[in-house]
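pasting for the record
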Amino acid sequence: MKINLHIIFDELKSSEARIIAREDFDYVIADVRYLPKDYTKLSEHYVYFADGLSLQEIRSCGKKLQFVLFGKADESLLAVNNWSAILVPETDRNIIFEEVQQIFEKYNQWEDEVFLAIANGDSAQQVFEICARILRNPIALFDLSGILIFKAGDLPEDLKNTSWEDVMRKGYAPGDKYSPSEQKEVFKLIQSHKKPFVYQSYETFGEQKEVMTTLSKDGIPFAYLGSTDILAPFTFGQLAIIHYVQRIMEMVLKKDYASYLAGHRDITLFIERIIRGQEIDKHTLAYYLKKMKWQLKDNFCLLFFYKSDDSPVEKMFMNICSNTIKDLLGDALLLLYDDGIWAILHNDADWLKDEVNFHNLTLYLERTDMFCAVSISFYDFLYIKHAYNQCRIVRASVKEKSSPRICRYETVYMQDILDSLSTFYDIYSLCHPQILYIYNNWINGKEYIKSLQIYLINGRNITSAANMLHIHRNTLIYRLDRMKEELNLDFTEIDERTLLILYLSCLIAKYLDEE
């Protein structure tokens, strides 16, 4: 196995050694040699043992040479020639030489064990455990939403205030514990780094440092590795080993990674087809719903969780949030679709009416800077397409960051109707002209029209309407009498069509004023 100088440096027992080397993940060193007399035969694939002063005798050969140097050395020559070196005080070179040879033997044996397990058809979990033996900290493999797939390496008994606490208790990585600013920083790093990188969240985990790196298939990430310095500090040598483990696990999982990362994929494929308006087989859908103990004609409600900023970084973050949302909602089916998280509540139409549920979900949305759109409850799973459209309408209607974190479609229903009408008609033509006149020209005309609207909502009951308006019933009677004269209508005897025209006209007048 080829390793790099950082791995050798980590394994050396000498506490006085120093390293001067590039921080890269190149595995180029295959063995150790004493420096030969013929410098033309020097190779990038060996680490050379030499006296520090001998650097002055080696002419630049255009190769990235690597050394273990004893005694004094001109460190400027390393930089000029792009060389790397471990600097060791003058000591018994043979002892150090044997120690480095043993390091190569250790890693060769480790690699042999890994590939033997792969050749024998051992499980991905078993291969992962062998990979982790060479690491100083435990490591975990997660799917893109942060769900724990495998863990390897020993953990300490006390996990309190570490990221491992939630991983072991809940079964997923607590990525949504980061502040909104940290979320963006982390996922930008994930996007820009194809190799392991170290991240430290002072706000969330204090002094704890984390290492992350993604696993990809055909250039598309499908999982990621995560580790923390829970037992030992991270060194660049350890990062190089994690990178090697990354490559091994990509090779192991790339053919069958879906079997490790699959959840409710069968049913979510049906949901996607229904939303897109494609035909599906109802009997097959009913079969998959039955596996979840659901039926086609049960009671459902759709929730859409989204960010006001739909940048690629925020979309990546949505994967992580899905785990906590699933915990909060309980018996719900989650689907990562388009630019958000879709949750189907089953037989829980009143879930959000529970004050504790509503409060806990609102707090989580505020902390993660997310919003939630809620559809009208529906009683046929195939109606999920309409619920999907309702949630989309809520998102389009609620644009300000100061808006409520949870918004039901019912609250934007009339606004949606008026917006839709205004795109096809001159909306003035749909409004009773005298309603517009009262609204725009009478003193306190807006209050008059509001009074008429509330009067109609309350079934033309004077007392109920006056109570809702917080005015005396005689004040309401006076306003209605004045409008009767203007409209030449008796409100107590109007038919259903006139009632609809009046009510919509009140809404349109207010809508036009807001526009």
